[in-house]
Amino acid sequence: MSITIRLAQNNDIPYIAELIPLSARKLQATYYSSAQIEGALGTVFAVDSQLIIDGTYFVAEACGQIVGCGGWSQRNTLFGGDRSLADSQDILLDPSQEESARIRAFFVHPDWSRRGIGTRIMQTCEYAAIQAGFKKIELVATLAGEPLYTAFAYHALARFEIPLPNGMQLPVVRMTKSFTKSTISV
Questions:
Q1: What is the DSSP string of 2-59?
Q2: For 52-90, what is each residue's pLDDT tens digit?
Q3: What kind of architecture, by CATH, is found in domain 4-183?
Q4: What is the DSSP string of 74-135?
């Protein structure tokens, strides 16, 4: 089955918004309670339309449907969607100042997990960040996402908890990677 990776468009937002809760509820369930997942939906697990506007968010398509999504960012925000970013200062980062690009908002449809979709989107994101001049990338990984990022040679900087609107806490891992053009394959 052919899977294509392409830049997300504004008209993809409703499909991405449907994919995120499906992905989170199924693929995060081994790592988080249902209360934690529900508390993260709409804030931590959510669409960030700025990534689509910036042209740094990708979707994976198969059989005419979006089966995965994820992106990178040249903005300061490490995680969260439109609702959680309303009051933040999402400034642009400068690779010439040794600032790190961000990996953001990876979700895969549960029926399509373990088929290399996250890997392909990650390769696409890293390549794009390199082309934009970044030599480092940071991210905030869910516990479910940590193995993917570890496989890509990211290492943990810190473990912390994100407070959720429902009073729960979401344990996550801040990770980083330094790279050059020779350390990535696309």
A1: --EEEE--GGGHHHHHHHHHHHHHHHSTTTS-HHHHHHHBTTTBS--HHHHHHT-EEE
A2: 999 999 999 999 999 999 999 999 888 888 765 554 567
A3: 3-Layer(aba) Sandwich (3.40)
A4: SBS--S--TTTTTTS--PBP-GGGTPPEEEEEEEE-GGGTTSSHHHHHHHHHHHHHHHTT-S
- Whole-prediction pTM value? 0.91
Q: For residue 102, what pLDDT band results from cuts at 50, 70 and 90?
A: very high
Is residue 3 packed enough to be buried (19+ CB in 10 Å), middle (13-18) or exposed (0-12)?
Answer: middle
What is d(CA 56, CA 121) in angstroms, rounded to the nearest whole number?
11
Rounded Cα distance between 101 and 104, Å, is 10
Contact between 78 and 140 under an 8 Å Cβ cutoff? The reply is yes
| 27 close to 76: Cβ distance less than 8 angstroms | no
- Distances from the Cα of 119 to the Cαs of 97, 99, 103, 108, 115, in angstroms? 28, 24, 13, 11, 9
Nearest residue to 16 via CA among 106, 139, 123: 106
